[in-house]
Known about the structure:
By secondary structure, the protein is an alpha/beta fold. The chain has helices at 33-48, 62-76, 97-107, 120-135, 150-164, 180-188, 205-214, 235-245, 268-275, 338-350, 358-378, 403-419, 431-437, 464-478, and strands at residues 143-147, 170-174, 192-195, 217-223, 248-252, 282-285, 298-302, 383-385, 393-398, 425-430, 447-454.
Amino acid sequence: MQDRRIDPAEPDASPNPGVQEGEESRPASGLRWIEEIAILGEATRLLENSFEVPPFDVDWDVGSVRRMLVELAGQLVDNDPYFHPLYAGQMLKPPHPVARLAWALSLFINPNNHALDGGRATSRLEQSSIRSLGRLFGWTDPLGHLTSGGTLANLEALWVARECQPGRRAIVASEEAHYTHRRMAGLLGVPFVPIPVDNRGRMEMAALDAVLERNEVGTVVATVGTTGWGATDPVDEILGRRERHGFRLHADAAYGGYFSLVSERFEAPTRKAFEALGACDSIVIDPHKHGLQPYGSGAVLFQNPEDARVYAHDSPYTYYTAPGGHLGEISLECSRPGAAAAALWCTLGLFPLERGGTFAKQLWEGCRAARDLADDLARDSKWTILNTPELDILVFSARAGSVREAGRLNRGIFEEARRQGLYLALFEAPAHRLLSAQPEIEVDQPAASVLRSCLMKPDHRSWRGEFIRRLEAAWRGSHGEAKSTRIP
């Protein structure tokens, strides 16, 4: 672990050690976190002076707290620069400054959105935010709330589905659905049936039909933006089977839900899938993925407000300040941070979820970055493109004579790219995907590590040239060429 020591005796040290006296002080990363702290200070002073209560002393050692924060800063540098455009690996999108600041400001109050007396203001903000998310899918007043993330949100949706479908137990999802769906079926005590996918990573309808005919399926999960390929299951086609077979349809749109704002730009199969989302029984969306929020901020929404009956419980020691409206009455979780609601509400205030708005344009820039990068790499004989990006995820591989060799080359490029300051992800892809993209490849093992990029930041498109320059250096370095040269 890199353990950088920062001297607490130098509180006024420049955030950029390379800045000389008289020059503008700005971090080499281009960030302005110090300015954010100044804004937080102004808002905190306003908040602190707004409560009419007698003064009291808080017993804490300022020097010790400062020392621990400085030590923490030294620990935190053992991370990749997730905030930078050269980070294009996992699904890590930096929160907007307004979300960071709103979250931090709220923590001085530390509201709990389980019951109204624990967070009246932030409960209102959460309800407002849920309505905004619902409008993405044409829902005006959905039942729903924020969660710690997509896993818990999906668990909650599947639990409600089980309770609404007594006797119809099985959960089905595609083989490319998030691995936690199988785990959640186990927690709920119901069978899980995986459905094969086509060559683009979408659920195969013929395979689904076969399962529906022979099983008592209670819930079908349609994934909108698979973790590996960024693929979208054919929600519209699944809907066509719901009336006959009587299952509930749940959309796991944790990654892809926000792309409803730009769905008219997609090819017909993907566009139709997004257009059908409003007919689903429940939808999960993660604001901490494309919604510019800190971890953890997920959301679960139900189209039918009557699903609230599943949550019915009695808590006389909690719900005593109002006859109804407590978010804890429609949530599996008890304590939940009001700070998450405050952060999302502020972000939605700056970036309304509007087609053609600033936020929608930024989403589309990520999609364009993935498509443009795919085109650039396709023109170079060293690379093989393994998916046509539906959203903003690109999967590619070094061209090789065999599947085994491809995996070896990709792992070497991945490591060398990190050394070159380019951060990618590895992904185990089945051999048939490499064979489909490169018919002459020898299939000598069932799968191989390939390279995957989540181009989630609007800046990724303008940084495409730098991305390719460093990727080329990584390819050369992994092949033993110019290994000592690192791009600054």
